């Protein structure tokens, strides 16, 4: 009887140790993953050395104005936090992704242009927007190739192409090669990264 109680107590202690060890390993793995995760924005910052960048200016009515060199917008995390809500900060500055079908622009069909929420750079025109069925606003081309940057993104064990704003390095989303004609590209963007300006 005594030995049986000891055996039960020993088995309970072993199970407890296994549980605690597994939990500690899981937490340690998550911390290590976060520490090792190569954020797309860090890659952008590492390659975005020039103090000036070239972009194409557009009026709010979508009129192509001219190509200019502008100072790259560089702010500290604290400065961005003052300017942006926490969700927008996480997406644009930390390469997070909004939940599918939750963005305010996924179903918008008005004519206008989409600007960067961080710096106002013109990014996309409603003329290239299409319903991809993915739950995010999708475009088959940017408003000007100069206004966006594409960066290799290897987070989450996948190889993708992240898209950021040329002027301020804000994370916008990703581009895939399963879009419609004429480009066959799908710029799958976060609504939180964009500000829509309706044509007047």
Written description of the protein model:
With 200 residues, the chain is α+β, with helices and mostly antiparallel strands. It has helices spanning 2-36, 40-47, 77-83, 86-94, and strands spanning 52-58, 64-71, 112-116, 122-125, 129-130, 138-139, 148-153, 160-165, 171-176, 186-189, 194-198. It is built from four helices and eleven strands. It has a six-stranded antiparallel beta sheet with strand order 5-6-10-9-8-7. The longest helix is centred in the first third of the chain and has 35 residues, at 2-36.
Pattern of helices and strands: HHEEHHEEEEEEEEE
Spans of at least 5 consecutive residues whose pLDDT stays below 50 are: 23-40
Largest sheet, in brief, is:
6 strands, antiparallel
Task: Give, in spatial order, the strands making up the sheet with the most strands.
Answer: 5-6-10-9-8-7
- The computed structural class is alpha+beta
Mean pLDDT: 84
Distance between the termini: 87 Å
Q: Please tell me how large the radius of gyration is.
A: 23 Å
In terms of DSSP E residues, the strand content is 25-35%
Instruction: Please bin the fraction of helical residues.
Output: 25-40%
Number of alpha- plus pi-helical segments: 4
Number of strands: 11
Overall 3D form = globular
Helix-strand blueprint:
Blueprint: H1 2-36, H2 40-47, E1 52-58, E2 64-71, H3 77-83, H4 86-94, E3 112-116, E4 122-125, E5 129-130, E6 138-139, E7 148-153, E8 160-165, E9 171-176, E10 186-189, E11 194-198
Antiparallel strand pairs: 1-2, 3-4, 3-11, 5-6, 6-10, 7-8, 8-9, 9-10
């Amino acid at each position: 009887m005594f030995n049986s109680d000891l055996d039960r107590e020993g088995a309970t202690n072993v199970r407890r140790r296994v549980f605690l060890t597994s939990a500690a390993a899981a937490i340690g793995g998550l911390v290590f993953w976060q520490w090792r995760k190569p954020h797309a924005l860090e890659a952008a910052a590492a390659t975005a050395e020039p103090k000036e960048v070239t972009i194409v200016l557009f009026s709010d009515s979508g009129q192509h104005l001219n190509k200019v060199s502008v100072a790259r917008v560089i702010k500290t995390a604290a400065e961005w936090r003052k300017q942006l809500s926490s969700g927008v900060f996480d997406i644009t500055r930390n390469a997070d992704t909004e939940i599918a079908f939750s963005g305010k622009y996924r179903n918008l069909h008005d004519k206008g242009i989409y600007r960067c929420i961080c710096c106002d750079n013109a990014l996309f025109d409603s003329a290239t927007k299409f319903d991809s069925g993915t739950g995010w606003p999708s475009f088959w081309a940017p408003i000007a190739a100069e206004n966006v940057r594409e960066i290799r993104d290897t987070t989450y064990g996948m190889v993708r192409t992240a898209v950021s704003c040329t002027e301020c390095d804000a994370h916008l989303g990703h581009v895939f090669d399963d879009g419609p004609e004429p480009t066959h590209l799908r710029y799958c963007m976060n609504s939180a990264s964009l500000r829509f300006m309706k044509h007047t």
